[in-house]
Amino acid sequence: MRQNFGPIRTALFVPGNRPERVDKAIDTEADAIIIDLEDAVPFSEKKETRTKVRDKVIQHSKDKKIIVRINALASKFAKGDLEEVVVEGLSGIMLPKVDNASHVQEINRHLLDEERKKGMQPGSILVIPLIESASGVEHVFQIVSERTDPERLFTVAFGAADFTLDMGVNLTKTGEELFYPRSRIAVGCCAAGVEPPLDTPFMVDLKDREMLEDDINRAKQLGFQGKLCIHPNQVALCNQLFSPTKEEIEYAQKVIEAFNKAEASGMAAIQLDGKFVDYPVVERSKRILKLATYVRY
């Protein structure tokens, strides 16, 4: 049965071969933790790291959403990764190097095999494909439109490091090189009716808070729900900027109350504090209030 994942404003990467960092990450305010078996783990340690990751998933499954990034399906490690880390309590699999929709069906088959072997509910583990190539960006609508049985796709995430490598361009402070892929990924998710995507980690300068803030705001404006983080220091600002403000929450409540009253009297468009309010504005207000349930002030 598909789980209710809820919004993810922040998903913090942790190297799978550093279990003590997983423990520390659990204590952060990140909405989800991504334990990494791919880029953060040397080839020589990948097999032995799987057991450490499995143990941490079991240990912390009730503390926070736990996602594991396995190695790419085309690698020699993916099958073994899944055999080890698919356990009760695992929230999701992040699948790297997704270039086309066939990868969505392939990961579903592998997960079904593991769930059945271990007596787990089929479809209990969700999937977040990582879009990190020109081909992935080009095919993103087909990828997010692909439906599996059971349905697993939560959303997709963007990986700018591999994308810019693929394109032969550099990551910059101002991010012009990411405007098109970000836009296409966000539009693809919306058009396919899946949750908004997760943005790439900010990697240009980990110490520059102002640049991080600009990068978050660009992603939010383009339609992303949250961001991948590679350092705990990025979590608080991401959570703050991907959450509605107190003023936005209060106004959303005001909009819904006023509109419900107007609708009961036969009106479907009103003015509130000099602003036009109709059904799309009301729907946006409902989304703000839904997200507000995850906000702490």
Number of domains: 2
Question: Quick one: CATH class of the largest domain?
Answer: Alpha Beta
CATH homologous superfamily (4th level) name of the largest domain: Phosphoenolpyruvate-binding domains
Structural class: alpha/beta
The spatial strand order of the largest sheet comes to 6-5-4-3-2-1-8-7
Percent of residues in helices comes to 40-55%
Principal-axes shape call: globular
Radius of gyration: 20 Å
What is the makeup of the main sheet?
A: 8 strands, parallel
CATH architecture of the largest domain: Alpha-Beta Barrel
Segments where pLDDT lies below 50 for 5+ residues?
A: none
Mean pLDDT: 94
**Distance between the terminal alpha carbons, to the nearest Å?**
33 Å
Instruction: Indicate the CATH topology of the largest domain.
Output: TIM Barrel
Q: How many helical elements?
A: 12
Q: What percent strand?
A: 5-15%
Q: How would you describe what is shown here?
A:
This protein is α/β, with parallel strands linked by helices and 297 residues long. The chain folds into two domains: 10-241, Phosphoenolpyruvate-binding domains (TIM Barrel, Alpha-Beta Barrel); 246-292, no CATH class. The chain is 45% helix and 13% strand. The chain has helices at 19-26, 46-60, 78-85, 102-117, 134-138, 140-145, 160-167, 179-192, 209-222, 235-241, 246-264, 279-292; strands at residues 10-15, 32-36, 65-69, 92-95, 126-131, 157-158, 198-199, 226-229, 270-272, 275-277. β1 (10-15), α1 (19-26) and β2 form a beta-alpha-beta unit. The mean pLDDT is 94.
